[in-house]
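Lecture 7 notes. Example A: sequence first, then its structure tokens.
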Amino acid sequence: MASDTPPRRPSRPPFDPADPLGLDELLDEADLDIRRTVREWAAKRVAPHVAEWFERGEVPEVRELARELGSLGALGMTLDGHGCAGASAVQYGLVCLELEAVDSGIRSLVSVQGSLAMYAIHRFGSEEQKRRWLPVMAAGEAIGCFGLTEPDHGSDPAGMRTGAVRDGGDWVLTGRKMWITNGSVADVAVIWARTDDGIQGFLVPADSPGFTAIPVAHKGSLRASVTSELVLDGVRLPADAALPGGTGLRAPLACLSYARYGIVWGAMGAARSCFDAALEYAGTREQFGRPIAGFQLTQAKLADMAVELHKGLLLAWHLGRRLDAGRLRPEQVSLGKLNNVREALEICRTARTILGANGISFAYPVMRHMANLESVLTYEGTSEMHQLVLGKALTGLDAFRG
């Protein structure tokens, strides 16, 4: 006989201000362990020093940091074999999130090492190149950089002027690359150059005669990051320095797409840091006899910030699941970078208004994140370029060469 008692509904968990959408339920134990490990490392190892590094415009311990990140498995972590961790794309995204929550420069170190330099070697290199470089790079014992952007060619890499010509059995490279993360501390540079047969990737050891890395000074952004100009003055390389699969412009663009995926997560780390700072500050800062968190306009700002932050995290998770399933398209990465960096900047700027004058002090992370995100907004594809990528995908019409 059927019971007249209605089925009991499962109890709802309490509302968590740190996770209002319950996104942690989308993560498994391995995901949560990796996030916890990197968050604790970043809080202990980077957070106490990064404001000073930013103010000084240098990271004095970059090689030590690289080795420690290597021991965490954070370098080239989604790659398989050769000492790489073989982690999921979602787990890599969580690492980017936690690293950029302390500073974009630290996430950039990992992103360029793993998603650009190591990824290029892993995907396009010979077995000998992989054996030589990937294990030491995964351990952080060697640092890599990625030379595509030039002083006069950023959004249009097809116009690059750096050239490689044959001289007997060797290659000779001449040209300049600009805004290269890790450049001055790199042991190897992945350099893209124009040959008679088209674009070709090369591995250039930093001790090659004619190769010079010049630190970029007077930056107002990414100051806790090594940024350099690379000069190649007749750098002679053996034939086996060329990446066998690294031909055509599609090769470096594939690397960029992979790195942009990390930015989709990382930008939300910077946004979370600013949101947390604003929420805590609003609860303790008193004006007109009560905390400013009790005023309607402040609550409206906090609510809007929380909405965009957690929408961005949900988008990042969705793209990560698609990447793990082998279904992520470059246009979808463009959508993620365009949205999340743009919204992260707005969250940081709103946090600045809540903190008032204190928002410009390096005692708080807000102004530092704002400055960093101005670079993140334009590197690895400006907002306008990603808008045009989406515009072409939506309309079928190419506006790049309009």
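Example B, a different protein, same format:
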Amino acid sequence: MAIPRAPVGELLRDWRRRRRLSQLDLSVGTGVSTRHLSFVETGRSRPSPDLILRLAEHLDVPLADRNALLLAGGYAPAHSAHGLDGPELAPVREAVRQVLHAHGPFPAVLVDQHWHLVEANAAVALFTAGSAAHLLVEPVNVLRLSLHPDGMAPRIRNLGQWRAHLLHRLREQVAATADAGLADLYDELRGYPGGEDRPAADDPAGTVAVPLRYRYGDQDLAFLGTTTVFGTPLDVTVAGLAVEAFLPADRATAATLRRLADDGGVEG
């Protein structure tokens, strides 16, 4: 990890402003005096690593950026960043694979913090079937695959609604992380065609969550998505992982997916 060029005080001030907090708000939340916070932000006082981490935790700074704050302050990183294929994260890989397998015959994927596909169960072939080969070259970005005209988009029946949902999620993620790569992805996806769409008045799934309505062959399928993250990550890589799983929103979809699994899977 490269040492940030900006002083740690400036970086902390940027995170505070990004979270729309005043120095008084941060002082009340952390027990650090506003005078000391001002000295830290202006560089008149060098914060200890414990203070940096206390402020970063209250500001909900991502683990990777907490490491960057420590480096900017002249300290060693506090959080490891192991490769997902390394032996240290073998228990994580095994746990996630069990979750993905258990979710079958319904689709589920593991993605990293930039929405790159890491793992998937067999049922995800339902979504990738019919997509252009260039969208399936590793690393596969699942948001690009979903909204690209050569990907899933032509088969998403409520594309405008689903597109708005995904862009909202990504926009919130950009605001929370200040990640330039995610910001570039948001700009790219926003340029894809999609159109406006409203859920049908008689759509029961649309009354509780945004459904994914997907056309497979001559059948209309309906899904509700769920997101699962690790509750207490200490590793940067693990903190960025999420399982995106899709549950059938009606009995017909559930029956179709079970039948496809019994028949040997999805046809290309």
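Note on Example B: The first strand starts at residue 108 and ends at 111. Residues 8-72 form a domain with the 434 Repressor (Amino-terminal Domain) fold (CATH 1.10.260.40).
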